[in-house]
TrEMBL record:
Catalytic activity: Exonucleolytic cleavage in either 5'- to 3'- or 3'- to 5'-direction to yield nucleoside 5'-phosphates
Protein name: Exodeoxyribonuclease 7 large subunit
One function term, GO molecular function aspect: exodeoxyribonuclease VII activity
Keywords assigned by UniProt, alphabetized: Cytoplasm, Exonuclease, Hydrolase, Nuclease
Recorded name of the encoding gene: xseA
Length: 454
């Protein structure tokens, strides 16, 4: 072999089949975005892995497709051979066989794309008109008097709702408005039921519900007339259409949306145990409030009783008498003090006189002293007489105010035994009652023979 042939062999870039398929796959996946492809399913295979493999075909061509388990679990229907579908897929290559294929990310029955577009357009329109605004949402009643259920009477949804209502609050009556929930007649049937419920006003809460289904199955709940009728209701409405992943226009317009019929029933009614717990709590609060109120009133009555005791005439008389006794003692102390001062002063003068004055002047001064003494005694006696007169007047006034003085004037106080309540009216006494009558010098016990009202 020549050297030129060796250089040519060295410079060749020889692909293995695996490398070729890998690079072709990279080129395909990098050249196409996610595509929407429509066709008919054939050669459907469901291996144990949970993935599905099928051929998507039209009258002129076909392409191999794969949908892996994580995406397949999100499907709301079961793919079947012969079913026309719309898939959203990535363009790729299965390297093991070198086959061109589509890897499906989403699948829906053909025709649902148009339904979805109509759904999105109506949703945007009603949203812009404000039908979804929270300001229009009516609060649900805490304890509904009657619940209306708008649904198919033979579906599983009504059984779920009734089962939950019976368990949570069996005392609440339920009225079923039977409607068609699927097909051409469904929107009109639902619309008539809504209008009838609004007209009759015999329920204070409505539940609009049905089981799950495809977008086409739920189209009655995406009807514009139905949505506007729900918005115009004066009765609160809970929408529970389909499963958790299903959303309808009715859900957005309703006052509350429930992911399932059972949850709608739970939203509509409080649990009976919660009600009992709340009633017990209120009862405890009322009992405590009553006890606090009684305790407060008891303290007020005790304070008023003490005030009455302080204002009783006996207490005032005692205070006046104590005040008079204090004045008398102060007067006597003052008189004694003046007399003692006079005696001391007289003694001093006598001492001075004895020391400096002859005997004849002593006699004169003695006479003068005797005269002063008599005048002093007369003055003291006169002052004592005046004070005694004032004291007598004060005592007289006290006697005038004393209940005993009233008794001395001929009055008496009669009490009903054994309680010793003061008898103020003939209606307080009856024949046979014992009476205690207080007069000025004692007490008279008597028995009532008859009463003579004036």
């Amino acid at each position: 072999m020549s050297s030129s042939d060796s250089e040519v062999n060295f410079q060749r870039d020889i692909y293995s089949v695996s490398r070729l398929n890998s690079e072709v796959r990279s080129v395909l996946e990098g050249s196409f975005p996610l595509l929407w492809v429509e066709g008919e399913i054939s050669n459907l295979a469901r291996p144990a892995s949970g993935h599905i493999y099928f051929t998507l075909k039209d009258p002129q061509a076909q392409v191999r497709c794969a949908m892996f388990r994580m995406k397949r679990q999100l499907l709301r229907f079961q793919p079947e051979n012969g079913l026309k579908v719309l898939i959203r897929a990535r363009v790729g290559l299965y390297e093991g066989r070198g086959e061109f294929q589509l890897v499906a990310e989403h699948m829906e029955p053909a025709g649902e794309g148009n339904l979805q577009q109509a759904f999105d357009a109506l949703k945007l329109k009603l949203q812009q008109e404000g039908l979804f605004d929270s300001t229009h949402k009516k609060p649900l009643p805490l304890l509904p008097k009657r619940i209306g259920i708008i649904t198919s009477p033979s579906g599983a949804a009504v059984r779920d709702v009734l089962s939950v209502l019976q368990r949570r609050l069996p005392a609440v009556p339920v009225l079923i408005y039977p409607v068609v929930v699927q097909g051409e007649e469904a929107p009109r049937s639902i619309l008539n039921a809504l209008r009838l419920a609004e007209q009759r006003q015999d329920c204070d809460l409505l539940i609009l519900t049905r089981g799950g289904g495809s977008l086409e199955d739920l189209m009655a709940f995406n009807d514009e007339a139905v949505a506007r009728s729900i918005h115009a209701l004066t009765i609160p409405l809970i929408s529970a259409v389909g499963h958790e992943v299903d959303f309808t226009i009715a859900d957005f317009v309703a006052d509350r949306r429930a992911p399932t019929p059972s949850v709608a029933a739970e939203l509509a009614t409080p649990d009976k145990q919660e009600i009992l717990d709340r009633l017990n709590s209120l009862q405890r609060r009322i009992r405590l409030g009553t006890l606090r109120h009684l305790a407060s009133n008891r303290q007020t009555l005790q304070a008023l009783g003490k005030r009455l005791e302080r204002m009783h005439p006996d207490m005032r008389l005692q205070q006046r008498q104590q005040y008079l006794d204090e004045l008398a003692m102060r007067l006597l102390r003052s008189i004694r003090s003046q007399m003692e001062q006079g005696e001391v002063r007289t003694g001093l003068l006598a001492s001075r006189l004895n020391a400096v004055i002859p005997t004849h002047r002593i006699n004169q001064q003695r006479e003068l002293f005797n005269g002063l003494k008599r005048r002093l005694l007369l003055a003291v006696d006169s002052r004592l007489r005046i004070k005694r007169q004032g004291l007598g007047l004060a005592i007289g006034k006290l006697d005038t105010l004393s209940p005993l003085a009233t008794l001395h004037r001929g009055y008496s106080i009669t009490r009903l035994l054994p309680e010793r309540n003061v008898l103020r009216d003939t209606s307080q006494a009856k024949t046979g009652d014992k009476l205690e009558t207080r007069v000025s010098n004692g007490t008279v016990i008597s028995t009532v023979e008859t009463t003579v009202p004036l």
